[in-house]
């Protein structure tokens, strides 16, 4: 039987971790300069990549980490370093270069992973799948995961309206703001990973 409490708990947990409102300026900053059609496609691709990664770790997450001998803190630190590199590009304006538009699909990295499907979301899903009882519990967990990704797609898809309002100057401002936010998220993720390593030791 469908468990509303399990659904609500995981949905709220993922909402806080994946932060759809906070992803808006980062998405706009990373996709600035692309045609609207490409931006819409990138929003969809990012959500598909995030869902694929989350679903994979939900099914065989522990086995993957154990096989690779990778700890969760190591995953957090690696994700933080990757996000920090992207944040520095946003802050210095390197993402405005035409080469970046053609050669790099930011929908895959860093949007899909590790920004949306980051260590926090992966761990939350692994634990939720493990703790779910029976078919009803599993249905509730996976429904929450799907619902969260639908929300993420809607937020990014319709955040493109903001671009039409703020024009080019506003896009530059949003890009720099996104760089600052992303760098803070990256540093916090690295700190959390180091803290867990120290506590484990």
How would you portray this structure in words?
- It is a single chain.
- By secondary structure, the protein is mostly helical.
- The protein has one domain.
- The chain has helices at residues 4-18, 20-31, 36-68, 72-92, 98-103, 107-116, 119-131, 134-200.
- It starts with a helix and ends with a helix.
- Mean pLDDT is 86; it is low at 97-102.
Quick structural gist:
The chain starts with a helix and ends with a helix. It is mainly α. It has helices spanning 4-18, 20-31, 36-68, 72-92, 98-103, 107-116, 119-131, 134-200.
What distinguishing features does this structure have?
88% helix; transmembrane; 201 residues; mainly alpha; 8 helices; cell membrane; transmembrane helix; globular; single chain
| Radius of gyration of CA atoms, rounded to a whole number | 17 Å
Q: Tell me the β content.
A: under 5%
Integer count of domains: 1
Q: Averaging pLDDT over every residue, what do you get?
A: 86
Helical fraction equals over 70%
Task: Lay out the secondary structure.
Elements: H1 4-18, H2 20-31, H3 36-68, H4 72-92, H5 98-103, H6 107-116, H7 119-131, H8 134-200
Main location: membrane
Family: Belongs to the UPF0056 (MarC) family.
Transmembrane segments: 6-30, 42-65, 71-92, 104-129, 141-163, 170-191
């Amino acid at each position: 039987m469908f468990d509303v409490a399990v659904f609500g708990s995981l949905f709220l947990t993922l909402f806080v971790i994946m932060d759809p409102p906070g992803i808006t300026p980062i998405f706009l900053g990373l996709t600035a300069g692309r045609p609207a059609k490409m931006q819409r496609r990138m929003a969809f691709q990012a959500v598909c990549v995030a869902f694929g990664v989350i679903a994979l770790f939900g099914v065989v997450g522990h086995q993957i980490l154990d096989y690779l001998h990778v700890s969760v803190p190591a995953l957090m630190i690696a994700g933080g370093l990757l996000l920090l590199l992207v944040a520095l590009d946003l802050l210095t304006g390197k993402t405005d270069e035409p080469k970046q538009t053609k050669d790099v699909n930011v929908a895959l990295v860093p949007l899909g992973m590790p920004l949306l499907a980051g260590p926090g979301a992966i761990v939350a899903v692994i634990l939720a799948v493990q703790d779910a009882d029976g078919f009803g519990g599993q249905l509730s967990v996976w429904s929450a995961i799907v619902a969260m990704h639908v929300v993420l797609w809607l937020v990014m898809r319709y955040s493109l309206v903001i671009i039409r309002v703020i024009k080019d100057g506003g896009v530059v401002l949003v890009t720099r703001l996104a760089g600052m936010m992303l760098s803070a998220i990256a540093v916090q993720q690295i700190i959390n990973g180091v803290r867990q390593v120290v506590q484990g030791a």
